[in-house]
Amino acid sequence: MRRPPILTAAEAAALIPDGATVAISSSSAIGCPDDVLAAIGERYEQTASPKQITSIHAINTGDMSAGIAGIDHIAKPGLLARIIGGSYPAGPSKMPTPAARALLESGGCQAYMFPSGVIYELLRASAAKQPGVFTDVGVGTFFDPRVEGGKMNDVTPDMARIETLDGREWIYVPAIPVDVAIIRATTADPYGNLTFEDEAAVLGTLDTAVAAHNNGGIVIAQVKRTTTEKHPPREVHVPGALVDAIVVAPTQEQAGGIFYDPAISGTEIKSLDEIESIGFDITKVIARRAAMELHHYDLANLGFGISANVPRILMEEGLDGEVTWVIEQGPVGGFPVTGKAFGAAYNPDAIVASSDQFILLQGGGIDIALLSFMEVSQHGDVNVSLMRSTTHVTAGVGGFADITAHAKRLVFSGQFTAGRKDVRLGDGRLEIISDGKIAKFLPEVAQITWSGAVGASRGQQVTYVTERAVLELRDGVITVVEIAPGVDLERDVLARAGIPLAVADDLKLMDARIFTDAPMGLELGAPRRPLPVPGEIR
Description:
This protein is α/β, with parallel strands linked by helices. About 20% of the residues lie in helices and about 25% in strands.
């Protein structure tokens, strides 16, 4: 039986030829094969090889705030000729610009940002020898070739194009043959079979491996450990027949800042008593109001940022388990982890492949998506992918475009203004003493991550939740439907927006309980999808 060799990271790096297309499976620190990537960068510094490679990753590779360089290891002029990513290294504005960002922003390599789910589809297309991917994800956004085509600098040629099929317009991206796959798992048996028992997610490891294997390439697997015993077959996610080399990295982290937590891999149950609640501030106010849009038994997607706090609201209200959370990295159910380890979940019901999770998300199989916003345009467009002043503050699109493409119900959360502000919360009121100087509702956004016009054409119901007002996109017009008690509509809302806002005839006050530092007695809506009753099925 075939036995792939166990190599050092340097020996594995030496397998990569000049001009190779290298697909990397990772999501920030989750599943990041950092030791192998570091060795590739070191090899290039010593030998000027491999040169002129193309890198493909569906979700960000590495986490700068967690000290995991990831893609930055290979972001060197001459080494990286082209990069295709769903998101990119990000961190606080005070942090130096990550190497990958600096390289692409200087025009040192061609660079694309495509929706993460679309990149997974591209890997599958490459594996299946299909011509490419037809998708309506990202129509009307930066990914649309009529807008930016997903290009991140002026040296990047067009790749995506519009094609008409059966009278309908699609974004088409040609498949890219993969020469090398770099993936990560927990344990390799003597035959290279890979298990993921300590991992927070399996991501797109199998798709990535098959893409390289079917194109005559090689698969390098970084693992935490090896075993002398053959794995039980049902525990194997990537069969050893696809694996060409093993690199052992015993210090690899499970997620950002977490070496290993068994509750994340699903081998132990974490008590909710161990999970800290969030402090009473603007963030909590927004998360509380967003939580009010949920119904019992919702299948709900959760995005990074303010929205990631909503499960904590439900926990505080004794409603944990009433909503099933779906995260693009693969966890279903459980309690999503916030911060650097976002993408993992405590006590998950299941951990499916990201590539499969995105099929659920792209097709609108969820009841509601709770996401964040950075900017909103007068047309309702949302920007989460580009902050022009400090580009590395935002990671990019990730799965945002995939999630928002067909979700029936969208709730975007964020603060009404940006910049330092002084507010008073309590006793059921919000008082704005001094406001942030930067408007977040603008004539146009820096980059369209979700298109209001396309969303309206698809009949999506859209709400924007802030600390002082709730707004809806009604017939293409952003309309104020609620304001916080203690807030002056004209002074604190209409005058602080960078665009004219409509005001609903039935303008309401936000629930005063949101602004009180005590459990609010949250009640969720009736189930959107009631279970069938025996005897009533026809």
